[in-house]
């Protein structure tokens, strides 16, 4: 089985990008070790702090964030990082070539119940023009990403990675190496599986309610087939399932906070997951437009997400075109 860096070099990946991905994996391996220790190391539970999202920070949110910041900002290639857990970007080498955004521990509400969580990352290049040490450097649409991926800390730790030439998966071996375990992943075009938090149903737009009602109507309904539902409350695990066997994952706009288009964040959840899904032949939208076409206005901007099997996502979009929006 091929080592991660060997695979990337054999497929003509930019040497400095390979180096950056390698150090990212040094951080993720440390996070995986911390998670394995869990309660034994006294690192379950919450801190007394809340992050910029207004969410109570788990101890492992902070630990993971600190590991990633330390490893990345210590490398000459990194101009700056932006994290779900940081109010503002943190800058490193003024001559650095890359910008990294990340959700250090997505799904962290699952940690104390021992359910899979993950690190999501997005890699951009510093734009030619831009104010030094400014958040503006990061505000690039998802199409500008040079790489994106996640490490899912599940029964095994799996890296799903794209550098713009398809999606490959690498499993963390006991040796500490990430070894190629799935090459050129492809999302099945159709599906019978959907993932949504049904408890929010009364808050959705009419179009989303109509779409999900028809999924629930099954073979007797307009879709003409029976569907299964999943909800793990960990985007990394949901996207990994979609990449692995198809499906649609959606966290739509809801009326609880009408000024925000949804719960998920564009820069370090929507964009990296969209690059993975599109590179694997799927589709990733807000139900109205492709997520990677959005020009970000601020670093913690939220986005509605509907991603996965192309035919299913296109159908969800059609429901939104056919039903007047209330947003
Ligand atoms: P809810 C985790 O907090 C997260 O950001 C995603 O990983 C996940 O898909 C979603 O929120 C779960 O949200 O409202 O079901 O708890």
UniProtKB/TrEMBL annotation:
Per UniProt, what is one GO molecular function of this protein?
Answer: magnesium ion binding
Q: Which residues bind Mg(2+) 2?
A: 103, 106, 269
Return the GO cellular component terms, semicolon-separated: cytosol
List positions binding Mg(2+) 1. 84, 103, 105
Where is the protein situated, by its record's location annotation?
A: Cytoplasm
UniProt cross-references to Pfam families, sorted A to Z? FBPase, FBPase_C
Identify the cofactor(s).
Mg(2+)
Report any one BP term from Gene Ontology: gluconeogenesis
Keyword field: Carbohydrate metabolism, Cytoplasm, Hydrolase, Magnesium, Metal-binding
Domain Fructose-1-6-bisphosphatase class 1 C-terminal as annotated: residue spans: 187-320
Q: What is this protein called?
A: Fructose-1,6-bisphosphatase class 1
Cofactor note (record): Binds 2 magnesium ions per subunit.
Fructose-1-6-bisphosphatase class I N-terminal domain: which residues? 9-183
Top-level taxon: Bacteria
Name of the top EC class for this enzyme: hydrolase
Q: Where does substrate bind?
A: 106-109, 197, 263
The record ties this protein, via CDD domains, to: FBPase
Q: Which InterPro entries is this protein grouped with?
A: FBPase_C_dom, FBPase_class-1, FBPase_N, FBPtase
Record's PANTHER family? FRUCTOSE-1,6-BISPHOSPHATASE-RELATED (PTHR11556), SEDOHEPTULOSE-1,7-BISPHOSPHATASE, CHLOROPLASTIC (PTHR11556:SF35)
Which family is this sequence assigned to? Belongs to the FBPase class 1 family.
Give the Enzyme Commission number. 3.1.3.11
Give the gene that encodes this protein. Answer: fbp
């Amino acid at each position: 089985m091929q080592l991660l860096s060997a695979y990337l070099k054999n497929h003509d990946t930019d040497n400095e990008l390979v180096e950056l991905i390698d150090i990212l994996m040094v951080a993720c391996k440390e996070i995986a070790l911390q998670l394995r220790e869990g309660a034994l190391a006294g690192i379950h539970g919450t801190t007394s702090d809340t992050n910029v999202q207004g969410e109570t920070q788990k101890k492992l949110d902070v630990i993971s964030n600190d590991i990633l910041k330390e490893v990345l900002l210590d490398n000459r290639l990194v101009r700056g990082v932006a994290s779900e857990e940081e109010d503002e970007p943190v800058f490193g080498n003024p001559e650095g070539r890359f910008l990294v955004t990340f959700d250090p521990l997505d799904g962290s509400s699952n940690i104390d119940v021992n359910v899979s969580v993950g690190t999501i990352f997005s890699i951009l290049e510093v734009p030619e023009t831009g104010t030094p040490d400014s958040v503006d450097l990061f505000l690039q649409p998802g199409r500008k990403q040079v790489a994106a991926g996640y490490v899912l800390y599940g029964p095994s730790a799996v890296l799903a990675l794209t550098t713009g030439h398809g999606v490959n998966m690498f499993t963390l071996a006991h040796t500490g190496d990430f070894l190629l375990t799935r090459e050129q992943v492809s999302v099945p075009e159709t599906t019978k599986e959907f993932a949504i938090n049904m408890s929010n149903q009364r808050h959705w737009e009419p179009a989303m309610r109509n779409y999900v009602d028809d999924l629930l109507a099954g073979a007797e309904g307009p879709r003409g087939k029976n569907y299964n539902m999943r909800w793990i409350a960990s985007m990394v695990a949901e996207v990994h399932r979609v990449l692995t066997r198809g499906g649609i994952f959606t966290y739509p706009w809801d009326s609880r906070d009408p000024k925000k288009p949804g719960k998920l964040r564009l820069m370090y959840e929507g964009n990296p997951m969209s690059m993975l899904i599109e590179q694997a032949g799927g589709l990733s939208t807000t139900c109205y437009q492709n997520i990677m076409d959005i020009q970000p206005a601020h670093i913690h901007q939220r986005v509605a997400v509907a991603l996965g099997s192309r035919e299913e996502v296109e159908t969800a979009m059609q429901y939104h075109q056919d039903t007047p929006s209330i947003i």
